[in-house]
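Fold tokens
===========
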Amino acid sequence: MQRLYMASKKQSRKKQIAQDTADDQFLVEANKAADWTEKNLKSIVTALGAVAVIVAAVLGFQEMNERSKSEATQKLTKAIVEYREITDLQKVLTSTQPQKLIEDAKKAIPSFEAIIASKEAGAELAKLYAADLEFRAGAHEKAEALYKDYLATAPKDDIIRFVALEGAGYAAEELKNYDIALTYFEQLTKLPQSFYLDYGLKHVARIHELKEDNDKALATYKELLEKVPDTKLKEFVDAKIASLE
């Protein structure tokens, strides 16, 4: 499935995404992807570079012949390499040129747009990368539209559906469409795979806070601890509960 690249007014967003990225980060070996269990999934992050490896391992681009498979994979791999260079976390957090980060993101978008337009294998995945780059470039409406497009065709049990839901939620949040953001984040709490339940509830609670509905926010934070007592978010949630009670 992210959720820093604007000027000074985006600094708080940078801190939020940095926290979420650090909290969420995971490494899953591609050759184990088909055998994931809930325990394995618990370690997942919304790192699209890792998602690409997982999807390739799970799906294997089976619908393609060997030649087209190679060509499509090469195009996607090249685009992803560029994406990862641009979005390197250390680079982003230490950059003193936020405008350059925005321009770099804009330059990388056409590669993914071409893959999407080709409708080759990897086109759906390319939507997630393009959406993330649009978000980084400040084009939140375009980002949300791409995430919505992905969600419209993705199976309900898609293992990376959470990436699109979270991304769309962040985009709607940036647009201050809090009710829409809430809808996306609530869906995170209802996925067939429960590994992202705690983060989904965290996002739901955050939006309630933004809507100044502290009672619902408090209840949601408590629900998070009840449903995921071993969550890595416990310290964060305990502090939130204390501040809201």
